[in-house]
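Supplementary material to the annual report.
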Amino acid sequence: MSNGGSDMTAPQATPLVEMQNIKIAFGGVHAVDNVSLDLRAGEVVGLVGGNGAGKSTLMRALSGAHPPDSGQIVIDGQPATISNPREAKAFGIETIYQTLALADNVDAAANMFLGRELTTRLGSLDDSAMESATRKVMGRLNPNFKNFKTAVMSLSGGQRQSVAIARAVHFNARILIMDEPTAALGPAETEQVRSLIRQLKSEGIGIFLISHDIHDVYDLSDRIAVMYHGRIVGTVKKDEVTTDEVLAMIIMGKPLEKVTSEEIAQLHG
Amino acid sequence: MVTEASPARAVPGGSPNRSLRSVLSLLEVDTRLLGMVGALAIIWIGFNVMSGGNFITTRNLWNLSVQSSSIAIMATGMVLIIVSRNIDLSVGSLLGFLGYTMAMVQAVWIPKNLGLGFDQPYTWVIALAVGVGVGALIGALQGFIVAYGRVPAFIVTLGGFLIWRGLIFWYAKGQTIAPMDKNFFLLGGGPTGSAGEWPSWIIGILACVAIVYLTIASRRRRRRYGFPVRPTWALATVMGAACAAVLGAVWVANNYFWPSALATQYAQAHGIAEPPGGLQIPVGIAFPVLIMIGVAVVMTVIATRRRFGRYVYAIGGNPEAAELGGINVRLMIMRTYVLIGILVAISAAVQTARLNGAVTNLGVQNELDVISAAVIGGTSFTGGIGTIPGAVLGAVVMQSLRSGMVLLNVDSPTQDIVVGVVLVAAVGLDALLRRRSTR
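Predicted assembly:
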């Protein structure tokens, strides 16, 4: 998880990720329409927008789950081809999916190492080593987690979410995509995730954060990108906007400059 | 950093009034499997009582072991297929086709077409290798169409069910091919196709050594990581029970003796004077049973200790999660079909050897027996759930019902009705228990 600390990231450094002119269509519908977005090391970029705005689809392009129809992904200044999740992981891109993407019938360790199992010299699964690593990560993320031997289907929503988070942070991610990471969590667990995000950020990891909770995003992000009908209507610095202005952008689908103060007033009407 | 990662060294022995449930959880035995063993015991005792003591005899149990092995071999592969949310309806027809192929190799192609004659020492190896190779190829073809062609497995293997059966008639023209090569014949079991007394004991003792070694090694590994381990008494109980079961099975096999006619023949051939009451030659464990045990061990390792097995279970649990985890889902699905193709070939060898010939209805309805065995053994059609030992036990349960009813002179349609009822009841009960345990 350590990535050299905070001293390595000057603000002018090459972006970790640049997504350029990404397009993804389903049938005739442009789910993501010519979107460009970048992310720097140690930065949290919030991605907000209504249902179907294209946030998750855009992130799925970066995580390799759904390669874009056109456009380019540049990582560390180098054009990168990401055509499946394995290739994304090779670039240090880890994803916490909204659906969690857990295999419900196997235990926490098996899920954490899914696709990246530790094996012995003879190529057998080294379950003890995997369980040990899982216990360590969980000790940090969710000390109440005790059910290491049960299938994750019998765990609570919060515990399942911790497994998904543990999987994303265990493998030295440089770029973390978090799609609604606190959706299933209670207040205490949500606070844990928030402090985790701050900690990962301080370690120099770049984070894309998708959330319905505008306050969550506002608190944690450095920049906020607002999507509307597959397009980015504006990317704003958190320090330069109010939550109401972001909300107005989400609802009206307009860039900040075009949002009038009357429209913001109407939000509370 | 919280020091959560170092739990207690060992689970304490517990209070004297432990409940059954807590004892079972300390033993770490699969309760579902234990339930099946219990059900099997009830079936055996029930048939034994109803048949006036004719069921639990060394002879019947030995026969039961041989009859179960062919279905059990295929059921271990069917588990992985069903676990990954697919199905294979073609195994019965494929078994017939591969049985014929192997029969043709040893009875027609090698001796006649190549002019090498019958009963060569290498004949059985070549026949088996051809069968396994063709089985793997056909499995790969069906698996490829399922995985990469995205045709539902039900349809692909339903097609296979018709095609492979049809091909038998194509190249055998309805004829029976018999007899088999004399070495190949031994694969089918029977008094000569068995390990005999001392080899059986040695195999049993080696199995016990392996059980003890593996159990202790796994405990050591857990200790080294500081994980909780079972108390010593639980460990000893489990190892003791497993070894007792192994040695008990060997004892049964060694207390079934050659039929007297065959023993007399043997005595005359070897110039041994027959004692009064005939020569008592212990049969020992039959070769098909040894093959089945070997297959079950290998398949258990594949299912639980290898990446491939882990992926198959993960795919069954959540195909999307497996894909997002970077697993090559389609290749894994295709491999499950290659595997079952190989297992069907092995079963085909056992069945043709046992019949000492290939007949056109070889393997008819086997797909249903294999699927039933897997399902009675706890494999779930919802995917992701099922074990190899469960499927083997399922095959034994099915065969016990069949042979018990034969012993009681129950006619074949009634047998089908009973097996059908048991199948549905077993799965219904399993679903009920599963729902309870997850809530």
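The radius of gyration of chain B is 23 Å.
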